[in-house]
Amino acid sequence: MARTGFPLFILTHEFFPKRGGIATFTEEMARAAVELGHEVEVWAQQTTRPDDAAEWPFKIRRLELRGSHGWRCCLAHARQLVRARRQLRRAQVYLCEPGPMLAMMPLLSFRTFRPRNLTLTFHGSEILRLHANPLARVMTRRLIAHAERVSVLTGYTEKILLERFPEAATKIFRTPGALRAGFGTRAAEERAPAEGRRLVVLTVGRLHPRKGQLDTLEALRALPSELRARVEYRLVGTASRPAYEGRLREAAAQADFPVVFLGDVSDENLESVYAAADIFALTSIDHGHSVEGFGLVYLEASAHGLPVVAHRVGGVPEAVEDEVTGLLVAPHRRAELTGAFARLLEDKALRERLGAAGPEWARRHTWEHSARLLFGTTEEAALSLGE
Fold this sequence. Notes:
By secondary structure, this protein is an alpha/beta fold.
């Protein structure tokens, strides 16, 4: 039986209407905690959109903050935590991303602001950024010291966390990302036959240098002319770096095959976008302190029966099984990346084999399992580890 004696507050700067990545992780962990019997309240950033756009099975408290990781936003969050200190002292508090961690750090020096129970999740990039700043490094160590449990999504993230903050070793749990509830219901056989049409390569992700869309586009442009005549590249996502989007559009204009920027696509329509594609590509690269800790979109693509092309970086090999659900290529090797696309475009049997392995692979983890590790009793967590 889950711990239900005191409420679970999940603090985040990334929640609806933000989508993808941490926002998805936060929502699914909150839903799973409710299923375990917890009284859950998500404390999230402000929004101009109504929360009744979704039927949440938990309470939502909108905080007076924009939801960035900048110091002004974190200071505003810290002030609100001070006002809510009596509630926090009687609650289990889950900081599932760096924004609320930065807000909580300065408060831990004072006993009156410490939550009764503190749980943390690290995703990857924030570990490198926090360690690189001497003051943040000290405060992160203090935060980990006060935490009861610390989670990561992948073995890669666990490795970089323990290398930089070894004090987490006795508290660490691996809580893998999973497929969103109800996502991936469109059967792979609904995909239109490939004969007589261009094969669609799809990327889903914000337009950012770390996501590697330009690497994918340049690799496709390097294909032999007979293969370029058979391909179309579609991109879902909006720009967080306008200059990068400009470079992408310039390269797209020089391509002799269709390149379609679909922009932001709703969750309701995204399944149709996956179903209309033949190959999924997200060729992430390390970009400064920004790394790919996992990548839930790889699971979404696999759930839709799409073979995946990706770079072998960060936690990606834990989301894509090389030569089983997709093809992994070392980053910055353009010829090898082009070769991976050529293999899939030329070999229908290979596309079908990798795609067919995807749905089972994508569903091997569940959010309930991860939530039980973080929010269950010690006995429940031990049982989940043994599953």
